[in-house]
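Figure 2 data, in text form.
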Amino acid sequence: MRNGIAADRLSQLAHDIRADASEGVARCGVQVAWVRGTQARVRSLPMRIGDRAVQRDFSWTVDQPSPCGGEDLAPSAPEFLLSGLGACLVTGFAVGATVMGIRLCSLEIELHARQDLASLLQLRGGAQLPLTRIDYTIRVSGDGTQEQFERLREKAQMHSPCAMSLLHGVPLHGRLELGHSG
């Protein structure tokens, strides 16, 4: 084990995927329930990796900052989006370092995003609703060279499902199911 990553599990997964490509398909989901105001409670749903079920039992709260009508009880949805991207990049970087035989001493990613709230409140035509930019900085120390770490940064971004989804866009399909009121 290097960098706290069980490389044997990664090798087994790679072997399984080479033998049957469907073993490399992961399916995950969450259920989000409105609590009140701008608060929501999120619960992870069971995950599937290939034909294996992976039980997930996590829940968390999402809220908006008080200037945006929230109670500031939890991170906002954009902050969770950034945390998902950051965690995905950290994972890719750490796994890549492990595969390359590089020992990490520390690894941290700081992310910043920009959003025009005028678009959210429909105050100004032409204001862009999506986050208009995400910048990140990786701070790392270990026994790799600067060139190896830069290559790891590039590969972590290229192999990050979150980064690639943001960079290339993911189709979003929604539907509505009406319940009974009262």
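Caption note: The beta strands are 26-27, 30-36, 39-44, 47-49, 52-54, 59-62, 104-114, 133-142.
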